[in-house]
Amino acid sequence: MDTKGISTVRVSTGAGSGSHSYRVTVSFYDAAGATVDQASTSVTLGSNASRSLDVKMSRPAIASRVSRCAVQATA
After folding, report:
1. Dihedral angle over CA of 39, 41, 52, 36, nearest 10
2. Partner residues linked to 50 by β-bridges
3. Which pTM does this prediction carry?
4. Beta strand spans in the chain (E)
5. pLDDT tens digits, residue range 8-39?
6. Of the candidates 43, 51, 48, which has an alpha carbon nearest to the alpha carbon of residue 16?
């Protein structure tokens, strides 16, 4: 994550047929492990494809409190 509250994530798919839409959610945590923010975006990918996405915090002013991020993608 950068100082402006943007986390860049890479989403990749395996073999399959057709394209699928994915919801990518990034949770931003402070040093104590508490969630300080969460942001989501959507992407549509075909089989054997990948794309980098910038996911911006909804409250970038608190980016300095973030010590780690976790990403979840759901179809």
Report:
1. 0
2. 12
3. 0.87
4. 6-12, 20-29, 35-45, 50-56, 68-74
5. 999 999 888 789 999 999 999 999 999 999 99
6. 48
